Amino acid sequence: MTSALLQVTDLQTRFHTPEGIVHAVNGISFHINEGETVAIVGESGCGKSVSMMSLLKLIPTPPGEISSGTAIYRGTDLLQKSEREMEDIRGKDIAMIFQDPMTSLNPVLTLGRQLTESMREHLGFTKEQAEERAVQMLEQVGIPDARRRINEYPHQFSGGMRQRVMIAMALSCAPSLLIADEPTTALDVTIQAQIVELVARIRESLHMAIIWITHDLGVVAGMADRVIVMYAGFIVEEADVNDLYDSPGHPYTLALLAALPRIDRRRDHHLKSIAGSPPNLLVAPHGCPFAPRCEFVIEKCRQENPPLIQIEKNHSSACWVDVKTGAPR
Amino acid sequence: MQSSTKITEPKNQWTARLLEFWRVFNKNRMGVIGLGMIGTLVIIAIFAPLIAPYDSSSTESAQIGDIYNPPSAAHLLGTDDAGQDILSNFIFGTRVSLIVGTFAAFISIIIGGTLGLIAGFNGGRTDNLIMRFTDIMLVIPDLPLIVVLVALTKPSLLNIIIVVGLLGWTTTARVVRSQTLAVKSRKFVLRARGIGAGNRHIISHHILPLVMPILVVQAVLVVSNAVLTESTLAFLGLGDPSALSWGQMLNYAFGRGAMSIGAWWALAVPGIGIVWVVLGLTLLGQGLEQVLNPRLETHHLTPGRPVVQNERDEFGSGKSADEKSGNILLDVQNLSVNYVADGRPPARAVENVSFTLKEGELMGLVGESGCGKTTLMLSLLRLLPSAGQIVNGKVFFKEKDLTALNEEELNIVRWSGISIIFQGAMNALNPVRTVGDQISEAIIRHLPDFPRDKRLDERVIELLDLVGIASDQKENFPHQYSGGMRQRAMIAMALACNPQVVIADEPTTALDVMIQAQILELLDDLRKKLGLAIIFVTHDLGVVAEICDKVLVMYGGVTAEYADVDTVYNEPRHPYTQELIKAFPDLTKPKKKLTSIPGYPPRLDALPAGCRFAPRCPAVFDRCHIEQPPLHKLGDMHFASCHLVEGSK
Q: B638, B641, B601, B637: which is closest to B624 by C-alpha?
């Protein structure tokens, strides 16, 4: 696994709105290897989803604009491809699962029709072949009585079941990269665990790379290889999952970890939130975007945005301060 | 709630679908009447030559005495100005009217549907162009234009069809466009794009099926409109002289002295025909609308009133322990709620749930979706939808039984005694009014005597301050607030009338972790400051671990475990609670795999016999499938409903 499956360099996405330019993604670079699972973590509005949608060119333009960057997937740049070429890639090479299974299914079409759609589009299956495979896929994601249930409508399925259907749909063409955009956020904890387990199992059998977008560090703890933390359209930390949990290198990651509710902790060690909310992306970034909420802030932070620098092997952080000692780097 | 009668044999899928269609349609009495009314007319039109007692084009010259004869045995509906049988004319006129209506509507629907679809889907300049054109067409008065056009061309049936059809598409275009716009922005269109679908595929497979129902309903209305327009034209003398339509009949009768002679039948019969068509089509349209949307199918619930019956007290011993200390605000005893659906067994959404809540206490109500949490909370204030009935139990709020109060007395308790922050409430703010304005409205709504001067303003600022919103944000609109701030504003609203109990129904579910932590801190803080008792409803045991005093775990509508928080986390006794705790990600061991509970919660209208958790329980044994375990008392403040804990302490 020396060459990356997807290498994103300096991706920048903006939205031109009546209020001004929204700087949604500000020059991020990362890679993902074949079969690897990377989690992208951050609060709502930090640019997680926008950056992923940019890769698939699903950003509505206008008002959106991918103003710079490359995304080399298997030797070619996704961002240079035409809409037609992207249609061939979406769903077949790179599949996406969306956040809300309740609204991502068309309510007036049977599951069968929606499941067979991509196979007929990409693999040229006949109706019967596609239906046969759809039943297989549904069984694979653990939906009992699949042959009967493909004739049912989305409202006849619970949230967890629908997310399973979404996964079956995304996997039907055996993509080499799956982008999962908060697939468990709207689900119950128990179902959430089921979905994580399911995706982990399928990943092994298909040898598929996964980008898992979430705001909840806890959910991905057990399955990701690497974690990328985003804030205000920047990558602020990138590390192997164990390093990130054991020795977070950015104040924002620390804050995210502290905000997670914990079962093993009670009032003696109270959960902590950081005040304020993510910065207004309408204002062109100046200095470190996290500085106004940061407890380690020093003067330099307000002047200059720290670059992502390596602090350990496979561990980078964009901070002027060493959070372990509190001293400037 | 899918129907058990659903037939899904692939072989006769179409028959099954048709049957299903009829089954649902049949429920809408108005639709069936409309279908009957229109069906009758269609049959009359088709078999006109067989039904009509006289040939309409009879050339035998009329006698003077035949003109405007009142209804008689020979002429059931009388005769007209030419001595012809009105019944026969009416029957043949049905043909003309329906043909014109149908074909003109067909043209309108094709044009309007296509333009609407193109405008809605493409948006931008195309949309602008098409819609401005539509606006112009709408501004031009229809009827005069049609009159002019028909008068210019030869007034033949074909010309009338074309003119009416070409001018009747505007509303269809607008309706289809707005539906397309709405559908286009839905998630599944993005999802379809995500799998590589092109525009054509998206329109034909995703948008059209959702526009279709509206188009069909619209078509029905356009037909009735076209029938009306044709009648008007004919009445004005612009009809095809060779085709006797209802309008033509009116024209002749009106123009040739039927009024002055008092021959009401010559006017009434075609008039009734027109009313009949328009009414029938409108009813039919309504019925179709109901059927064509598969989601409406589930909404056939029978309305009912809250029924409160006997009382039992299995729970008395647990209560007395509580009563010793603190002031009990809320005491719920053996509450059961059913949802009654048409022709189906009642869904037992809540069964025999009891709990107490003291001043300043924070209780977590935990369970998966569909386990009855929200139903339980709504039933406390009797806010259930009409199908929900309280079938047993009592709810004491400060010693008053809420299940026995009338609506008026309840309204006093609602909000000023117990207030609810609903799930997803932060999206319930009105976007065009300032947040401060909406909070003051909440105050006045519930405290009508509140002085409407500076004091109201001060109260709003005070409330905002309580939830940590700076007072200068008062005049801002909801879209200027972040999700977390909106949720704070909703909490401020819930506190407007100084309630003693606040029910927070999944207040953090849609928010991300950082804001969730902020809201939890806020609630904890408010409870200390104001002595509020809070019920925190959540599906996430982890969220409540840090702030709750006690936890009620529900499963399938019953209490699985009820205990103080330390007991729940340290020695859970119900297998469900144990599994829930295991399902929570443990950050201290990141590489540990999450354990999930296999399977799904039971459907409340198809509960398993015996213990409701039995099908998913890792510790299940024979007895669990047969006998429903009662709630066992395990300690002063620890209850669990599992056969395994029987006899133990």
A: B641
**A169 contacts chain B (CB < 8 A):** yes
Instruction: Identify which of B180-189, B268-277, B480-489 has the greatest average pLDDT.
Output: B268-277
**What type of residue sits at position B500?**
Q
Express each pLDDT in B131-156 by its tens digit: 999 988 888 887 888 888 888 887 78
DSSP readout, A114-165? HHHHHHHHHT---HHHHHHHHHHHHHHTT-TTHHHHTTS-GGGS-HHHHHHH
Using an 8 Å CB-CB cutoff, list chain A residues near B295: 107, 153, 155
Residue scoring higher pLDDT (B335 or A157): B335
User: How sure is the predictor about A271, in pLDDT bands with cuts at 50, 70 and 90?
Assistant: low
Note every long-range contact of B565-572, with CB atoms under 8 Å and residues 24 or more positions apart, other chains counting: B565/A266, B565/B364, B566/A266, B567/B635, B567/B637, B567/B638, B569/A263, B569/B545
Chain A residues lying within 8 Å of B294, measured CB to CB:
107-108, 153, 155
- Contact present, B214 and B101 (Cβ < 8 Å): no
Q: Backbone phi, then psi, for B326, in 5-degree steps?
A: 75, 170
Mean pLDDT of the A159-185 span: 84
Task: Please name the residues between 208 and 227 in chain B that touch chain A, using a CB distance below 8 Å.
Answer: 209-210, 213
Closest of A26, A8, A27, A17 to residue A64, by C-alpha: A17
Burial B458-489 (b: 16+ CB within 10 A, else e): ebbbebbebbbbeeebbebebeebbbbbbbbb
- A297/B contact by beta carbon, under 8 A: no
Pair B27, B300: CB distance under 8 Å: yes
CA–CA gap between residue A147 and residue A138 (Å, rounded): 9
A99 to chain B, closest Cα gap in Å? 9
CB–CB contact A255 B484 (8 Å): no
Chain A residues close to B540, C-beta within 8 Å: 188-189, 261
Is B516 an 8 Å CB contact of chain A? yes
Cross-chain residue pair A96–B484, CB shorter than 8 Å: no
* Axis-axis angle for helices A111-122, A159-171 (nearest 10): 20
How many whole angstroms separate alpha carbon B428 and alpha carbon B420? 13
Among B193, B195, B541, B548, the residue to mutate for chain A (most A Cβ within 10 A)? B195
Strand partners, B401: B396
Question: What is the DSSP track for A242-257?
Answer: HHHHHS--SHHHHHHH
Locate B124 and state its tokens: 């931008």
Q: Distance between CA atoms of B382 and A15, rounded to whole angstroms?
A: 47
Number of A to B CB contacts under 8 A, please give it: 230
Least CB–CB distance from B591: residue in A113, A215, A222: A222
pLDDT for residue B114 is more than 90: yes
pLDDT digits 0-9 by tens, A107-155: 878 888 888 887 887 788 888 888 888 888 888 888 878 888 888 888 7
pTM of the model: 0.69
Interface test with B, best of A114, A115, A156, A188 (most B CBs within 10 A): A188
Whether the pLDDT of residue B230 is over 50: the answer is: yes
Say whether residue B4 is in contact with chain A using an 8 A CB cutoff. no
- Point out which residues pair with B317 in neighbouring strands: none
Q: b/e for B568-600, b at 16 or more Cβ within 10 A?
A: bbeebbbbbbbbbbbbbbbbeebeeebbbbeeb
What SS3 class is residue A28? strand
Whether the CB of B370 is below 8 Å from some CB of chain A: the reply is yes
Tell me how close the Cα of A302 comes to any Cα of chain B, in angstroms: 23
**ipTM surpassing 0.95, yes or no?**
no
Preferred mutation among A189, A219, A244 to probe B, highest tally of B CBs within 10 A = A189
Provide, rounded to the nearest whole percent, the portion of chain B with pLDDT above 70: 88
